[in-house]
């Protein structure tokens, strides 16, 4: 499940393969941009913004993509067999003499003017892993709707950009409240601490292997996350079975003993 840390890893791989090199192949397999051709343009950079990817090309063009739940970018060396899914799931192909970047199952893919990137990402709050990270601003954004459940507020990318369902559950556990606790009910020091914890957790997982995250500091299988995906298994802190219920149509996990507060 792509979240801010995995998006940054993807951007790093794409930037290393494409930046400063001329495109020898360009194929955007979405109806609106099927005739667009970036061949011959040099890739300037690939930049993550929250859970969005911005690939910028000379001539003032940006390819904006969002992976949502199961999209992925893969980079292959010249002549290497593509492995990322069946061909009908491919939405974008960007090739240089040495590498080919292939985007699979991309629900959002659009070619826009670089000068108009704010239209795609200007609504985002401070990027947890970006140069604009500001924990005080993130905490203020969360508190702007004090009646809103914390779990929903953390997933709202307008408050802070980069958190997905996994980190939502883990951060609520660390804050020792249920995801349904109204933001305004958290003691004042907790929100800045929560924002700082988000930055710490995502930063610690940037260099990890794709699909793998650790929030507990324990490196034994099945004990690398506090609550996410651990329904009916004992809490790593108190032994109480972890519970699961939907929140905003997503599975949400919490420990009923370690995390007091409202539940569904």
TrEMBL record:
<keyword id="KW-0456">Lyase</keyword>
<dbReference type="InterPro" id="IPR015887">
    <property type="entry name" value="DNA_glyclase_Znf_dom_DNA_BS"/>
</dbReference>
<keyword id="KW-0227">DNA damage</keyword>
<dbReference type="InterPro" id="IPR044090">
    <property type="entry name" value="Nei2_N"/>
</dbReference>
<keyword id="KW-0862">Zinc</keyword>
<dbReference type="InterPro" id="IPR010979">
    <property type="entry name" value="Ribosomal_uS13-like_H2TH"/>
</dbReference>
<keyword id="KW-0511">Multifunctional enzyme</keyword>
<keyword id="KW-0479">Metal-binding</keyword>
<keyword id="KW-0540">Nuclease</keyword>
<keyword id="KW-0863">Zinc-finger</keyword>
<keyword id="KW-0378">Hydrolase</keyword>
<dbReference type="InterPro" id="IPR000214">
    <property type="entry name" value="Znf_DNA_glyclase/AP_lyase"/>
</dbReference>
<feature type="domain" description="FPG-type">
    <location>
        <begin position="226"/>
        <end position="260"/>
    </location>
</feature>
<feature type="domain" description="Formamidopyrimidine-DNA glycosylase catalytic">
    <location>
        <begin position="2"/>
        <end position="130"/>
    </location>
</feature>
<keyword id="KW-0238">DNA-binding</keyword>
<dbReference type="Pfam" id="PF06831">
    <property type="entry name" value="H2TH"/>
</dbReference>
<keyword id="KW-0255">Endonuclease</keyword>
<comment type="similarity">
    <text>Belongs to the FPG family.</text>
</comment>
<dbReference type="InterPro" id="IPR012319">
    <property type="entry name" value="FPG_cat"/>
</dbReference>
<dbReference type="GO" id="GO:0004519">
    <property type="term" value="F:endonuclease activity"/>
</dbReference>
<dbReference type="Pfam" id="PF01149">
    <property type="entry name" value="Fapy_DNA_glyco"/>
</dbReference>
<dbReference type="InterPro" id="IPR035937">
    <property type="entry name" value="FPG_N"/>
</dbReference>
<keyword id="KW-0234">DNA repair</keyword>
<dbReference type="InterPro" id="IPR010663">
    <property type="entry name" value="Znf_FPG/IleRS"/>
</dbReference>
<dbReference type="InterPro" id="IPR015886">
    <property type="entry name" value="H2TH_FPG"/>
</dbReference>
<dbReference type="Pfam" id="PF06827">
    <property type="entry name" value="zf-FPG_IleRS"/>
</dbReference>
<protein>
    <recommendedName>
        <fullName>DNA-(apurinic or apyrimidinic site) lyase</fullName>
        <ecNumber>4.2.99.18</ecNumber>
    </recommendedName>
</protein>
<keyword id="KW-0326">Glycosidase</keyword>
């Amino acid at each position: 499940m792509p979240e801010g840390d995995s998006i940054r890893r993807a951007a790093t791989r794409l930037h290393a393969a494409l930046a400063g090199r001329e495109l020898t192949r360009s194929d955007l397999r979405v109806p609106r941009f099927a005739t667009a051709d970036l061949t011959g343009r040099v890739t300037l950079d690939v930049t993550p913004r929250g859970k969005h990817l911005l690939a910028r090309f000379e001539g003032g063009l940006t390819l904006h993509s969002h992976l949502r739940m199961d999209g992925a970018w893969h980079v292959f060396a010249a002549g290497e067999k593509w492995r990322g899914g069946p061909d009908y799931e491919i939405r974008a192909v960007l090739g240089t003499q040495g590498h080919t970047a292939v985007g699979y199952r991309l629900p959002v893919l659009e070619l826009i003017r670089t000068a108009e990137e704010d239209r795609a990402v200007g609504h985002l709050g401070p990027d947890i892993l970006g140069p604009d990270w500001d924990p005080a601003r993130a905490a203020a954004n969360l508190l702007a709707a004090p009646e809103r459940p914390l779990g929903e507020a953390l997933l709202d990318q307008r408050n802070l950009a980069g958190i997905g369902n996994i980190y939502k559950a883990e951060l609520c556990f660390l804050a020792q409240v249920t995801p349904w606790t109204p933001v305004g009910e958290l003691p004042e020091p907790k929100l800045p601490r929560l924002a700082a914890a988000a930055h710490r957790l995502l930063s610690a997982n940037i260099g990890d292997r794709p699909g793998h995250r650790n929030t507990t500091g324990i490196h034994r299988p099945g004990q690398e996350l506090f609550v996410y995906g651990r329904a009916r298994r004992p809490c790593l802190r108190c032994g109480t079975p972890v519970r699961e219920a939907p929140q905003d149509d997503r599975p949400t996990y919490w420990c009923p003993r370690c995390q007091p507060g409202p539940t569904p």
